[in-house]
Prior knowledge:
Helix content: 25-40%
CATH superfamily of one domain: Cytochrome c-like domain
Number of helices: 4
Amino acid sequence: MFFFAASPQQPAVEKPEGKPWPVPKKVMTITSPIQPQEGILETGKDIWSQQCKSCHGKKGKGDGVKADKLDISCGDFTSKKIQDATDAELFWKMSEGRKPMPSFKGELSDLERWAVVLYTRTLAEDEQ
Length: 128
């Protein structure tokens, strides 16, 4: 009879970021029409759980269940790089999408997408 000890989980393999994803200059002046209030953040969290978590992970670390199937990193939304992006940049990228990430402008309203942007800001707060 043989006994096998469970092996520790292997750390995730670092994946490349993907090509640069520049945002048009005219987009940079857009500001959110909503503020990060409790109901708005709950809406953002609910949408994140339904639409974003499978790739970006529950806490935005880029470790969702579908992340391993992708050739590029999903990004760490708690990182300085993403947290330093403007709300307009995040909103535009979510709206437009880029393979492998879908466009959400036809699936979510502007206010829903802004709610997700505001919710992503809270992911870094969880790290502190």
